[in-house]
Amino acid sequence: MSLWSYNLDRVDGQSLALIPFLPATRGSRLVPTARYHLSVLWLIPIIILVSTSCQRDEVPANNPIIPPVDVATEGQQPVKPTQVEKPVAKDPWLIDVTSATGIDFTYHSYESGARLMPAIMGAGLALFDADRDGDLDLYLVQGNNLLPGKGQQTDSPNRFYRQETPWKFVDVTDESGLGDGGFGIGVATGDFDNDGWTDIYVSNYGPDVLFRNRGDGTYEDVTDKAGISVDGFTASCAFADIDRDGDLDLFVTQYVEFLPDKKCSSSAGRPEYCGPEAFEPSRDILFQNNGDGTFTDISESSGISSIAAASLGICCEDFNGDGWIDFYVANDAYENNLWINQQDGTFVDDAAILGASLNLNGQKEAGMGVVAADLDGNSTTDLFVTHLDMESNTYYRNLGDQMGFVDDSGISGLGPSSMNFTGFGVVAFDLELDGDNDIFIANGRVRFGPKRSGTVSPPPWDNYSEPNLCYINNDSGKFVDGSALAGDFCRAVESSRGLAAGDIDGDGDLDVVVSNIEGPARLYRNDAVRSGSWLAIRAIDRSSGRPLLGARITTTDGDRTIVRTLSAASSYGTAIPAMVHFGARNPGSRVVVRWPSGEREEFATGDWNRTIDLYRGEGKAVE
Amino acid sequence: MNSDQRSCSQIASGVPALLTLLIACCWCPTTCSGQLDSASFIVEGMESPVIRVIEGAIRRIEREPDSYARWYQFAATLDAHELLEEAATYYQKALSLRPDHVESLYNCGLVFEYLGRNDDAKKSWDQILSKDPGHPHTNFRVGEYHFRNGDLDEALACFQTFIVDQPESAMGHSRIGRTLLQLNRPDEALAELNRVLESEPLDRPTLVSIAQAYLRSGDREKAQQIQQQLKDDESLFDALALIDPLRAAVTVRAVNSNTCIARAEKHERIGEYACALKEYQLAAVGQPLNAKIEDRIGKLLVRLDLSADAILHFDRAIALDPTLVNAYHNRGFAREKLGQRKEAIAEYLHVLEMEPDHPLSTERLKKLGEL
């Protein structure tokens, strides 16, 4: 029986709730009446009133900032606070303060109508402490005019901004030597040579570049010297110690074998940017650090290159709790990979069996950005992957006990509400210091669509712009859309890509940076009302001064256990600060650190509302 | 109640409706400007046959402005070419003329779903179910809505209603299996998922779910065996995604079938068989009695290792045109791929009876040692 022969005649007329969207009609033409237009004007004050009353209802009670306390306890080093006076917290939560920061950066894709795929990818950024002065500096990745078919245009390299005082940055690109002119996509940060200074790996469409931090404000291109030779379509990348030998190895995702001559169109025939399926997928690359400043490509022997997929996002974490770093790779239109470390230099993709390769419908999705964090407060690491519009973002909840993940996008509130957006960068952090992770997503289409109200992007990007999203955690892994209260962060309608969170002003809550295609990089100050206290922790190797990426730190908030992992790779093409940040209403007095080498140590926190350094080997050993 | 009066009653019903109305006014410039001008719907690069279809649909509306069918066809044309917001607008116009028009309600729901307006989609489908609670395809869609929202018990009930009407649907059993898995009922999920494999043994996502179900039921060894199969068996693919009858068949797309065929041939030439298949499926909606389209669909399904499904299309092609020699040959080849050697030989011999010099059947028979 065909569908349309089914009971058509049994349905009788009825009023239809969907109809009133249409204006009145006159004859064969659809003609608006004056009454129709006037009828909506009176709605405006009502909308404002409703919006205002909602804000009042949902804002938690203010909690005054507790001043920093200089208390030293065993194994920890108090850090000179850089906190600035925070204004009395009022809505909105995230305020665009870019214009006052000295950051003046617009990402250019040099799109000229050719619709070459790299131009739609945008680029990430790095938020990190480059000069070890205790505040965060900013590296912004740039496109260029080197794509095939482009005319000669002014080249503009990546830019590096050093933070001098809170929210005051200086462009030090030229003197730093970090002005790579490749067609930039992403960036990873990590101290690969164990000298205590954070180095930078820049991923490009074209040759990638490894910059070594000399420690004097300048960087050296050591790509060739290090034995790195990657000349493809790299997206996100990550430093992590895969073999627990004390140095950082490097995972480099590869997207597709892009062919500039390939043309694509929409169903309507409109020329459109090609999707990943128009090209052969590439194979990811894994470099093992030799400990002498050089790397060996172990992609094949490790098993990483055994799968070809269009990889975009990456995060590293010990997903199975065996003390060894694993990788999760978000693939665009291919099954995602969960590379489980076999502890012998090889990896096995267990994403399928562990329920993290496909969504709940068994569908591959367009994985873009990814974040690994405990979103439901059960002390296991969950995954959240951003996707194309008409798909939803996907929340893979870790069931624990080696039972894998379950797609809880729907029940969590994170799924259907995201279907009208194309997500790229994503961060999870405790916005209002209430002990749970909230989620922030940078959005922007990759296919032409109607202009969204409020877009500030220039043509043609105004047809690719979307507002960002913000979800507030209700303490148990259920999220509510906080976009209406998030302020400038969700009001900006642009084609956003990179997204990082970090405590830029040292006031104890995390601020946000977003990169946009043909739009300015934007810095948002966190003015959310605080529900509790904060603790920022750097987990460090004393001999080298290097942050020990992969360190897993546990503390308590009343009866609840909070777990965070020190990581510098997340989001989309983005490096995040190598620092763990806790918020808590009833902060605990101790933390337990499981170091990347497997040992566990306990430290006293002292008072909260400050940043502390924890050194491996200087705590109390625990089983 | 005329349309103005109906609008007023909705406005009075609450602020959400008011907000929606305001938004609708903002993103509906064509309607609000009072013009139904084909230029408003033509986008850069749109193929001329598509433009002609749109212009034709508008002309028909001008001739019969009170015909819900004309507005529906116009909306479906826009829908077929991903002009979704516009399509939603004109599905609603069709519904203003005939509120119980099931196709418009159903397709409007699909478009809303694509646009991320899930609650509007459900409202549209609920209107079908309010008159016909057992409507199978709508139950499937509403089940999907609940599934995505994490309302698993409601989803399961909808999928089970669907499967009563479509007991052999692989898609239906797949959804029931996955819902049971989400409900942490792995043993029941396994039973449903294994039913999917009975009709689609190469469906990779189903095997993925089965591996997870075994893991959750405590049979880690079996789960790992399937995981190994997933790694080793390169013939596995997303079988259900290619044969989703719920979208291809029910989205009555007023497309130009010849354009679809031309696109399909283009895809076929460069080896994009899945894309070609989708275009032929759309063409078949427009030309349901075209035996050659059925034959082409069957050939593509064979290429995509879906020979069992392909045979159904060859059967249909032959039923439509018993003289279509190639359909017999292709059906023979599909049977050969399924290991039905005897039946394949019979098909090839039948081809030679119809066309004694048929080169492909001659070649196959030689390879099979029958000539």
Q: Outline of this structure?
A:
The complex is a heterodimer of chains A (623) and B (371). With 623 residues, chain A is mainly β. Helices cover 7% and strands 35% of the residues of chain A.
Word description of this protein:
The complex is a heterodimer of chains A (623) and B (371). With 623 residues, chain A is mostly beta strands. Chain A is built from 7 helices and 48 strands. In chain A, the strands form 13 sheets. In chain A, strands 9, 10, 11, 12, 13, 14, 19 and 20 form an 8-stranded antiparallel sheet that branches. Chain A is globular, with a radius of gyration of 24 Å. The termini of chain A are far apart. Chain B starts with a helix and ends with a helix. Chain B folds into 3 domains: 117 residues, Serine Threonine Protein Phosphatase 5, Tetratricopeptide repeat, CATH 1.25.40.10; 123 residues, Tetratricopeptide repeat domain (Serine Threonine Protein Phosphatase 5, Tetratricopeptide repeat); 111 residues, Serine Threonine Protein Phosphatase 5, Tetratricopeptide repeat (Alpha Horseshoe), CATH 1.25.40.10. By secondary structure, chain B is mainly alpha-helical. At the A-B interface, strand 2, helix 1, helix 2 and helix 6 of A face helix 1, helix 2, helix 3, helix 4 and helix 6 of B.
Sequence-ordered SSE layout with sheet pairings:
The complex is a heterodimer of chains A (623) and B (371).
Chain A: E1 25-26, E2 29-30, H1 34-41, H2 43-58, E3 76-78, E4 94-96, H3 118-121, E5 125-128, E6 137-140, E7 159-165, E8 168-171, H4 173-176, E9 183-190, E10 199-207, E11 209-213, E12 219-221, E13 231-240, E14 249-254, E15 256-257, E16 264-265, E17 271-272, E18 280-281, E19 285-289, E20 295-297, H5 299-302, E21 311-317, E22 326-331, E23 337-341, E24 347-349, E25 370-373, E26 382-385, E27 394-398, E28 405-407, H6 409-412, E29 423-429, E30 438-443, E31 466-467, E32 469-473, E33 479-481, H7 488-491, E34 493-494, E35 496-502, E36 511-516, E37 519-526, E38 533-541, E39 546-547, E40 552-557, E41 560-565, E42 569-570, E43 574-575, E44 580-584, E45 590-594, E46 600-604, E47 610-615, E48 620-622
Chain B: H1 3-11, H2 15-26, H3 29-32, H4 48-63, H5 68-80, H6 84-97, H7 102-114, H8 118-131, H9 136-149, H10 152-165, H11 170-182, H12 186-199, H13 204-216, H14 220-232, H15 239-242, H16 245-248, H17 257-269, H18 273-286, H19 291-303, H20 307-320, H21 325-337, H22 341-354, H23 359-367
Helix pairs in contact in B: 4-5, 5-6, 6-7, 7-8, 8-9, 9-10, 10-11, 11-12, 11-13, 12-13, 13-14, 17-18, 18-19, 19-20, 19-21, 20-21, 21-22, 22-23
